[in-house]
Design brief:
single chain, 102 residues, five-stranded mixed β-sheet, two-stranded antiparallel sheet
Amino acid sequence: PIENGRFAGGPVTVLTVPAGELDALPSLGKLYLTDEQKEQLLEDAGVAPSFLWIFDLRKGENECTCNAANRGLRISEDQVEVPHEYLMSDEDVEKMLDSLEN
């Protein structure tokens, strides 16, 4: 659930991204995480994928969470909010996608 432009469904980690990097992504683009960002997620949430799918909450992009995994919710010019509830390892994402195809 989104309330006042922020994720309200549980714990999150807010990652800061270098200026301009988010603007360079296409809509629903992949943000590849730095080692430092992965370490922060691992410490905060216990799991750290190699990338996040970025949705811009400022534009009202995609509040649906069906089969959601590794979403980063853009909340400002240089910040992404990462809901812990939807974080999965790269391996677990592969398994989920395989199960959806079968």
